[in-house]
Write a structure and sequence with these properties.
By secondary structure, this protein is largely without helices or strands. The protein has 1 helix and no strands. The N and C termini lie far apart (about 40 Å). The structure holds zinc ion (2 copies).
Length: about 70
């Protein structure tokens, strides 16, 4: 079982409901680097956490950060 990097629940594909299981240590290492996109092996889509909806699309969650003006 691989925990989601955000909510730490079992990382499950939001699209098809398959538990994500990396097939290699390299794939597992990619999970700790959020900038690396991860594809679901079940449906081939971009992996999205079923619980917290965190997309593993290789992009940082900075859409709402338009500036840091305090
Ligand atoms: Zn999550
Ligand atoms: Zn899937």
């Amino acid at each position: 079982m691989i925990p989601c990097t955000s909510c730490e629940r079992p990382l499950t594909c939001d699209a098809c409901g398959v538990l994500y299981e990396p097939e290699s240590p390299d794939a597992y290492a990619a999970l700790s680097r959020i900038e690396v996109p991860v594809l679901c092996k079940g449906c081939g889509r971009m992996l999205v956490c079923r619980w917290c909806k965190l997309p593993y699309d290789g992009r940082l969650d900075d859409d709402d950060v338009a500036g840091n003006l305090g």
